[in-house]
Amino acid sequence: MEKVFKTIAKISAYLITICIILMLVCNSIVSCNAKGKVFSELDSIAPTKWGLLLGTTPQTRIGNRKNMFFKYRIDAAAQLYHAGKVERILISGDENSLDGVNEVVCMRDSLVARGLPTDRIVLDGKGFRTLDSMVRAVKTYGIKSFVIISQEFHNERAIYLAEHLDLDVEKLQAYNAVSPDSGWSFITYAREYLARVRMFWDIISGQQPQELGKSEPFD
């Protein structure tokens, strides 16, 4: 019996090691790919017509507290618009998230409160995942050049997805919203390692959006 336990322990250790290496490799590939495309300084963003704001809820799902990821993304989008870096913003998120919140409407209302005209904002409530958001921005809305707006870790993954899903993109750049540093934020950062592994599986397996919908090109 002791020999069996040792064998199980060895196999478990090997599997855990392989998983950790896989996550680190995927993380490194995505981060390296984003160099020169992801910026934290407003002056580094070249003016373009569209900004793509990736959705999240205004409250955290654990504890129902104010979601700083949400606030900082709204800050970043408003900065880009008022600085003349983008003319219009496509908000892509879940119109009926797990806690029943319409992410895109909440984000639109917050942007309007920051002085953005409603006719400068387009809502895509079918951006259930980052993959859906990227594919739908290009294939459904016909937007091929845009600035992605989210936290740096999210922007890096979104850039990689857009470039490796056989999308007809022309110029991509990303503006980094401030990254929260609270203890609870650690859960999101840790989950990103798993999200990057899944992203590669999605690309390899040819994963498609849950809903592509009828083409409604703007550009």
Topology:
Blueprint: H1 2-33, E1 38-39, E2 48-54, H2 68-82, E3 86-92, H3 103-113, E4 121-124, H4 130-140, E5 145-151, H5 152-164, E6 171-177, H6 185-205
Parallel strand pairs: 1-6, 2-3, 2-5, 3-4, 5-6
Helix pairs in contact: 1-6, 4-5, 5-6
Task: Walk me through the structure.
The chain is α/β, with parallel strands linked by helices and 219 residues long. It is 47% helix and 16% strand. Helix 1 crosses helix 6 and helix 4 crosses helix 5. The longest helix is centred in the first third of the chain and has 32 residues. The radius of gyration is 19 Å and the shape is globular. The mean pLDDT is 91.
Helix content: 40-55%
Structural class: alpha/beta
Radius of gyration: 19 Å
Number of helices: 6
Assembly level: single chain
- Beta-strand share of residues: 15-25%
- Distance, first to last CA: 67 Å
Adjacency order of strands in the biggest sheet? 1-6-5-2-3-4
Element-by-element helix/strand order: HEEHEHEHEHEH
- Tell me the total number of β-strands: 6
Main β-sheet, in a few words? 6 strands, parallel
Mean pLDDT: 91
Q: Low-confidence spans: pLDDT under 50, at least 5 residues? A: none
General form:
globular
